[in-house]
Amino acid sequence: MTAPVVLWDLDGTLLDPAGAITGGIARALAEHGHAVPEDLRRFVGPPVGWSLRAFTDVPEQEIPRVVAAYRARYRTEGLAQTRTYPGVEELLAGLHAAGVRMAVATQKPEPTAQLAVERFGLGRWFETVSGAADDLVAPAPVAGAQPVHDKPAIIAEALRRLGVRSPDPARTVMIGDRSYDAEGAAAHGIDCLGVAWGFASEGELGTGFAAVAGDADELGELLARYTAPAPTGR
To answer: How far is 145 from 210, CA to CA, in rounded Å?
Structure first.
């Protein structure tokens, strides 16, 4: 039997940005003379450029400047504010020791996602980090990269890199905090487990998720359904 596969979202699931994303976006918008939306939590998950187009009135020609300002500060200040959620590293270590194959599947631009994963020493647990195309000069997707807001494509790329051509729904699961994660998992016929500590809006975790964990210990219990060793015959 093949090893179980667990795919992880990044911000709001593995990492707590602790205001690094929302605060950074607010400062970048204000610095360039643009209004700051009230609900900045919506910006956690999708790539920044996509969110600016969806949730603000920033002109298209100004988006690269705002994104560049945000990213520069994220690398110098934002990562310093970020933390792993309690119990997550212990859970990753236990899954890895049990032979579970794991990858990150995030809508964060892939180079930034890789930087964050390595910054917190999480790379040892993951075989690959599948992220979105760098959307600084979007809307057109970068050739050969995943569309900026297409979670199914990002998950597909993670599975491809793992060599999983047809995921076993009994042994493959996605973990995330937003509806995008559940929708992406459903596109591949696999479950998504939600985490209550992320950035979901009210009611967002109510549909599309197989179950929702309140903390890392509960998530570990839910994952046992997909990762427990197969029974051996006599």
So the answer is: 29
Confidence of residue 213 (pLDDT cuts 50, 70, 90): very high
Q: String of b and e for 173-184 (b: at least 16 CB within 10 Å)?
A: bbbbbbbbbbeb
Look at the block and give the residue holding tokens 């591949």.
Answer: 188
Taking the C-alpha atoms of residue 103 and residue 99, their distance in angstroms, rounded to an integer, is 13
How far the first Cα of the chain sits from its last, in Å, is: 16
**Is 115:140 a contact under the CB 8 Å cutoff?**
no
Comparing CA positions, the residue from 199, 163, 162 lying closest to residue 181 is 199
Kind of pairing between the strands at 172-176 and 83-84: unpaired
Instruction: Express each pLDDT in 112-163 by its tens digit.
Output: 889 899 989 999 999 999 998 765 544 434 444 444 458 999 999 999 999 9
Distance CA 228, CA 88 (A): 18
For residue 188, give both structure tokens.
């591949």
Determine the Cα–Cα distance for residues 181 and 14; give it in Å rounded to an integer: 13
CA distance readout (Å), 132 to 41, 168, 193? 19, 24, 21
| 57, 61, 62, 64: CA torsion to nearest 10 | 120
Quick one: residue 172, left, alpha or beta (phi over 0 = left, psi -120 to 50 = alpha)? beta
Work out the number of other CB atoms within 10 angstroms of the CB of residue 196: 13
β partners of residue 193: 175, 211
**Tokens found for residue 27:** 């400062």
